[in-house]
Write a structure and sequence with these properties.
The protein has two domains: 304 residues, Aminopeptidase (3-Layer(aba) Sandwich); 140 residues, Glucose Oxidase, domain 1, CATH 3.50.30. The strands form two sheets. Strands 1, 2, 3, 4, 5, 6, 7, 8, 9, 10, 11, 12 and 13 form a 13-stranded mixed sheet that branches. Strands 14-15 form a two-stranded antiparallel ribbon. The protein contains 15 helices and 15 strands. Helix 6 links the parallel strand 4 and strand 5. Helix 3 crosses helix 8 and helix 8 crosses helix 14. The chain has 510 residues and is an alpha/beta fold. The protein is 29% helix and 21% strand. The longest helix has 20 residues.
Length: 510
């Protein structure tokens, strides 16, 4: 077992200023200056079996204990452990990862990439429609508060069509609450148009009976306090409005939206062809509600352990590890990284692998169903690598939608092949999956998803170890060779994924 490192719990990472495009032409510059590999001791080329054998569950669990202690740094401010961006728990996480990488000597060049991030908090909310308080009413993420953070009293006004054009908002919307159908355009667009029409609040109701929880996305001044509402709760209201009846309402949201600075961490092997990089990432932050040991401590610690064990080998192609900040707020770190990446640097990334939630207690072995037909060419070849490995181990697996719910999203939207594996979040395990993977049908894959109980007892050691070995295999395979893997070109780099995007991170966006 590798010795456990001590981490300075009181150190907070300081923002280093914006990273310019010219700096990113050399995207992995060390803060200590150029690092030179020590060639005095020749290392053998990485071998997948040997790298997999080096992965030990005890090391992963020790790291999980460290991470939970770090999350506890946030208790004075939040009242419970958390690693949400802007917290001491997240600052401590970044320090822990970076310090561990520094301790690996000159095998990697390290960089910190500060960027502006938006985070929102809803302290209190209430929606009354007529004489009813709909249980499904949920404030949108990044919603502004109602005026003066006080209740507003107004009538509902039905917006025409999908509320995606200014002409859909009649003059009656002014000083009232816009009632808007979900669909066609993002929630943020609907809220902005409602605000421009003079609405004091907005309600977006679902197209089916289910609940509706989403995000307004990047804040703009015209956004108004916005709720999501289930189709079931909306149906009787819609019937009254279409019949010309007056429906009075009270809307109240006490919230704030703030901009902060946070940081991505990138580590790239000194050796290996820098024009042919295999890249993988996980997110360093949790939601505010809990410590996030499975989501995504399991992924980010897996990367750290694989990065540690890889130092015992040489590589032909460069390997680039990333710890993204702000994933839980809407994929902020990975979006920023790819958005500011010059085209010539984009082309050096042959593929991106996303590792988010590797040890869900009621797990299934899930592979993102990334096809070449809907995504950058090479995504399907990566998918088949996971299929082949699970098959070789005699393990069952299942495919899940590749729909933008994690940090691969920016990569595939910018022409970089992508994929990954997971073990399940709030989805319900089926009877068939119970037979395939064990566990319990009818329950969430992770019963503590985005909750306080996502602590060190919320990881399944079997799933975590199996998937860490698979991640080691994915790194070793492409660190040796990209033989038969599709080449990148400027044409493919500029071609966006055709995959429909209903999500941006954990949030619905339209």
């Amino acid at each position: 077992m590798a010795p456990r490192r001590l981490w300075p719990c009181t150190v907070l990472l300081t923002a280093l200023g914006a990273v310019t495009a010219s700096e990113l032409q050399k995207p992995l510059t060390s803060q200590q200056g150029p690092l030179v590999a020590d060639s005095a001791f020749a290392k053998s080329l990485v071998d997948t079996d040997k790298l997999q054998d080096s992965i030990k569950i005890d090391n992963l669990l020790d790291r999980a204990k460290d991470l939970f202690e770090i999350a506890q740094l946030s208790e004075p401010e939040f009242g419970h452990p958390t690693r949400v961006i802007g917290s001491k728990g997240h600052a401590g996480t970044l320090d822990y990862v970076y310090s561990a990488l520094e301790g690996l000597g000159d095998y990697y060049t390290l960089s910190k990439q500060p960027f502006p991030a938006v985070m929102g908090k809803v302290y209190e909310s209430r929606l009354v429609i007529g004489h009813d308080v709909p249980e499904s009413a949920s404030p949108m993420s990044l919603t502004p508060p109602t005026a003066n953070k006080e209740p507003v009293y107004a009538r509902l006004v039905l917006v025409a069509n999908d509320g995606c054009e200014a002409s859909d908002y009649s003059s009656d919307v002014a000083e009232n609450i816009a009632f808007i159908l979900r669909g066609t355009c993002p929630f943020g667009t609907k809220s902005q148009l409602a605000g421009k029409a003079g609405a004091v609040a907005a309600i977006v109701y679902n197209t089916d009976s289910g609940e509706l929880s989403g995000t307004l996305g990047t804040p703009v001044p015209e956004h108004v306090a916005t709720f999501g509402l289930s189709g079931k709760d909306a149906a009787p209201v819609l019937e009254k409005l279409k019949a010309g009846k007056v429906v009075d309402s009270i809307a109240y949201i006490d919230s704030e939206v703030n901009q902060i600075q946070t940081t991505n961490i990138i580590a790239q092997t000194v050796e290996g062809d820098p024009d042919n990089c295999v890249m993988l990432g996980g997110h360093s932050d949790s939601v505010s509600e809990g410590p996030g040991i499975n989501d995504d401590g399991s992924g980010s610690l897996t990367l750290l352990e694989v990065a540690t064990q890889l130092t015992n080998f040489s590589v032909n192609n460069c390997v680039r590890f990333a710890w993204w900040a702000g994933e839980e707020e809407g994929l902020l770190g990975s979006d920023y990284y790819v958005d500011v990446l010059p085209l010539e640097e984009n082309l050096k990334i042959r593929l991106f692998m996303d590792y988010d939630m590797m040890g869900s207690p009621n797990f299934a072995y899930q592979i993102y169903n990334a096809t070449n037909a809907a995504n950058p060419v090479g995504s399907e070849e990566l998918r088949e690598l996971y299929v082949d490995w699970y098959t070789s181990q005699g393990l069952n697996f299942t495919f899940i939608p590749f729909d933008g719910r994690s940090d691969y999203d920016a990569f595939i939207r910018n022409g970089i092949p992508g994929g990954g594996i997971a073990t399940g979040a709030e989805g319900i395990k089926t009877k068939e999956e119970e037979v395939m993977f064990g566990g319990k049908a009818g329950e969430w894959y992770d019963p503590c998803y985005h909750q306080l109980c996502d602590d060190i007892g919320n990881v399944n050691s079997t799933a975590w170890l199996v998937n860490t070995k698979l991640i080691a295999h994915s790194v070793a395979t492409f660190a040796v060779s990209f033989k038969d893997f599709p080449e990148r070109s400027k044409t493919t780099a500029l071609a966006a994924s055709e995959q429909p995007r209903r999500y941006h991170g954990r949030y619905l966006i339209l």
